[in-house]
Structures
1.
Amino acid sequence: MTTQDGLPALTGTPPGTNALPAAGPRPARVVAVVGPPNSGKSTLFNRLTGLRQKVANFPGVTVEQHLGKLRMEDAAELDIIDLPGVYSLTPRSEDEQVTHDVLMGRMPGVPKPDTILLILDVTNLGRHLVLAAPILALGLPTLVVLNMADELEKRGGEVEAEALAQRLGAPVALISAASGEGYDTVLQFLRGRIGIPRPMDLLPVLSDIPRCREWAARLGEAAKYQAPAPPVWTRRLDGVFLHPVAGPLTFLVVVVAVFQTIFSAATPLMDLVDQAVGASGAWLGAVLPAGVLRQLLVEGIWAGVGSVLVFLPQILLLFLFIGVLEDSGYLARAALIADRTMAKVGLQGKSFIPLLSAYACAVPAIMATRTIENKRDRIATILIAPFMTCSARLPVYTLIIAAFLPEKPLIGPFLGTRAAALLGLYLLGFVAAVATARVLKSSVLQSERTPFVLEMPPYRAPTFRGLGLRLLDRAKVFLRRAGTVILGMSIALWVLAHVPLKDGKSPQIAESFAGTIGRTVEPIIAPLGFNWKIGIGLVTSLAAREVIVGTLGTIYGIEGDETGASLQEALRHDLTPAGAVALLVFFAFAMQCMSTIAVVRRETGGWTWPIVQFTYMSVLAWVGAFVAFRIGTAFMA
Amino acid sequence: MPHTRHPATLLDLRKGEEAVLDRIDLPADISQRLMELGFLPGSRIAASFRAPGGDPRVFRVDGTEVALRCETAARLHLRPDSKKGAASPS
């Protein structure tokens, strides 16, 4: 129900009539945000906490429960828990298990919620209202938030929130989480200012889904619910995106456009960061007194961390694209288009979303596999996810490609040689993933085919707020890594490169500890065309792939080439073109990422799978690089 | 005599046609999930878009669109003579 001035109505407190006197409203302390997938849960969570939370149209992207804090001027600080999207509380998938456990107070480390915000898509009330039955049965103070009020109105639907509140025995707020309309009601409720009406209808037997639906339908009728007209634009867009010919073509164009933009549009921004890093390093060198500290700071830290920082614009651009695709709803269509292909390797369309996110980073991708109900499908998806070209490979690829491949247009202005090479590497990772999946699914992880059930959300324009929060978070994660893993590695490497002291002076790199490490691994990597300097980089990049860029930056920074040769020139000096190809192949296959190993261990519940995965990927990387080097040498000789 | 088709399962529905669901011939946990999404016996279901190649297919149920693989759609049986829609002479 909306009031005349268009503001959403606040319902639930007709004083003295229906409000329960005993269970009078109390301010909330721990609030759980619950709702079906695509109900706008994350948007509301973003609004409440201001922290980032993935907002996506694909059912089940919110796999991790996200915690946040809400501070109101006149109330205590609240803990807000964002729970995975669920259709029911019957724990069948892990998402439902998590939601169930948190609400029951059975999740270790998570406080038991004392208040629930149940968020439902009001344009879809018939289906979403079913979730109210098990949630209200918990007996906690609950605000039923009917989201997307603006869309309901635009598409000619309506609902009387007050009537619904009376029947449910819970206050109901009609809001639009995206625009903020009606948001105040939510805050009022959390302050304990909204009473709870006595229910008029008994809750249905929860296990009986048809009964629950009848109950929901009866309530909807009582609230004079008018379902909105089907979204016209969604049908029109699907007419194109799911067209037998135009659909796959669009899919292809989107993918190519993303890669080309990442390369061409990011370059000026990256140059800018590069110049800033270089200028500040030179300035530091000028103002600091000469000595060990200045050397460490300028050669070790600035060169190491700086050479990785340069890639921030490119990584943010990639996340921007993935964000737009996710939030707009296109990703679900992509999953639909991809399902048949995925089925051929024994997987399903649902694996497509985690695998696509793995193009950004394997860690959230592996966490997103929790939506796959079939355990074997899930493990197979986890095992192949690190083959997808994650953003940490991007700095390595970019550096090597830029150093060895001159940029020439291939298809007019649309695709250049460098973007094509990058695309090829993405393809290589994808092929390795598919081949691995095939092997796994036809052997150790064989399983019955699981039914593919996927909701197609209506298309929505992504909001600047959602995208902005997402990018901010990605930037923070990247900078945190640059500030911890990469900084630590840079310092450690710089120190290792300067000891043992010889006659009180630092040795040549080749005779330092770092050089010793490089020389120790050299026999193993020499057949791949790598020398000991690359060897040092391979060792340090076991922590995280992009560290190799910083490492090489540090090594060449210390070597202090008088000509001021750039990292690219230095690389050309140390690698043959065939060796460069081998290095690219090595990075395409190897599992050099501590975070991924840690998350695989957590998600598979033991060390077996991460060890198997690491071994398999390392062997594949070595063999792949060896073959690439041999073929490359033969061809380029 | 006008030719009439009797679609037996969701798989037989042509794009734009709709019919009433009779029963789901699938294991309990899967049919529960489908029911949560709106595939309840007695509800009207319309065939919508298809993925290139015709599998999976999108069905319109209860105001939303849900994609199912053909093998699953073939297990959702329709009430006889409940067909209605674009391609039907009715």
2.
Amino acid sequence: MADVVQLLVAGLATGAIYALVAIGFTLLWQTSQTINFAQGEFVMLPAFFVLIGMSHFGLSFWPSVALAAVVSVVVLGLLFKRLMVDPVIRHGVLPLVIATIGLAIFFKEVVREFYGADAQPFPPVVAAGDMTVLGIAFAVQSLVVLAISIVAVVALQLFLNGTRTGRCMQASAQNPTVARLLGIPVERMILYTFLINAALVTLASILITPIYLAKFTNGEWLGLYAFIAAIVGGFNQVRGAIVGGLLLGVIDNFAAAYLSSQYRMAIPLLILIVVILFRPQGLLGRIEERTV
Amino acid sequence: MGRLRFGLALSALMLLLGHASAEDVKLAYVGEISGSIAVSGGNFRDGIILAVEEINAAGGILKQKIALSQLDTQTNPGVARAQMQKAIDGDPYVVLGPIFSGNVKATMPLLQQAEIPHLIGGEAAELTNLGDRYLFRTSFGQQIGMPKISNYIRDELKAKTIALIWVNNDFGKGGRDNLIKQLAARNIKLVADVSTESGQVDFAADVVKLKAANADAVFVYSNEEECARIMREARKQGLKGPFVGDTTLLSQKTIELAGDAANGVRGHVGLTADAPIPAVAEFSTKFQKRFNYKPDHNGIKGYTAVYAIRYVTEKRLGKFDRKAFAQAMHGLTISPKDEPAILMETTWDDVGEIDRISFLAEVVNGQQKIIQVLPKLGK
């Protein structure tokens, strides 16, 4: 029983990180019909910004994290939108998908060129150790990762539902034409979603890299897992991304423990196939109809 | 007319340069410059580069400069075969690498067929049992290391049960099979046998399984990055250990990546930059000065391999002859008295297996500390 609970908590912690990245997928899709296949590399990069802050500027960990957050929001939010999405999206979704795949390769190769192919150590957010609750030992780091992710998701929901800007963003996502008629600066709202996505991937990066270690290939599986999580949960619903991420994290851990670690990578893909076959809108997604 | 003269002079110069490069002795490094074990391949490559630079600065081998080509296997057997064929097409005197045992296995038939000696970094036990007369190790095979660490588990740790976590590739499978055999011979029970994948990043589920086994000791057998991730996850989940392993678990890169999580890890190391040997310390200093990081055992493997090539070619053969080189290597012992850069007395047996002293070590405060020097098996 203790094993099951420990696996569940570890799975939820990893799943919460997938959820953060998957939320970014859904936000960008809802507001600007952007599918960002460089999302995994967006998670990989901020960790290297932190390392640059520590090794090249001599900063300690937390100031480096702050620096990385600012750089990420500018590069992965503002510049990504202005330099890639805005010019390409007018040609359709497919060219943008291809462009982001190219961007993913570019980011990977740049990191490999300047930081090497080796993994780099990355400091954990809290020191390692375990905490015993009802006779079951839990990893403190897993609990902290889970707690931070929950706080981030709740804060995002409060922002989207409880503030004027958040509601304007939702209105822009639901019907940009009507939103414009109501005087909402839709373009600015879309920009905000890109900045929020950049902040979310930075947070995911700080939480996942102590486990994965900083390596140029980190984005490959992260991006894929988060994409699958978003589809499984529902690509057009933030809560779908959360459920998809958590579900994937838990199933992945249980599969590794009780089925086979050799086939653990196949399980998310199987889930993806099943969902697409039987519930293409995702577990919590809504069916979208389009005029052709 | 002036242009014609200039053109002729340039052509002559190019011919001269071409002639000079044609007389270089070609060595090829076919190894893991990228991919999941780039850490090991990079260290091995840098060891080679350091030795090549030193030898070239001293006049080369038999007065011929070494021309080193580098080909990246990307830690992928398919790519490794293609790269090895490319290397063979370049007509190298000796091939160095690969490091990844799976890649060694995939490429060794090509080299055997081309009758090109190859000094490998792979440690899977079976590699020297496949009848390749041109293959030579640069470090112990698992059948040498595992008995030593099993004795340590029985005699020093006094462990009766072991939980094993290993990487599911040729290196890991070979190590696992050897270890299980050695543990059984010493009445040590294997209570958990956890297989993991090469390049795996999340070990939470695997560590839960290790914890559930409640063993007297945990044996970690994987590549450096994965060893570091396992140790981080183990400490994260409060798994107490003791943790034991062979070479990769105690390597410099594992210690660097695992940070504090590596402290307390113990095991057997075939080669280490922390060996209490002045020549090794001198090598380590030179390596750090050249590449700005501390070498691990793979750096020593690459470095000594090039000097072994020079020694055999100059002192034993006096000519470049691949067949004669392979014959001379079998049963050869190189002593630091004869070739100081070999660092430690090294012997190759009739199947290319290597023998030299080795070490028992423990990681203390982020540093590998040698606790015992083990003699050569042949002594």
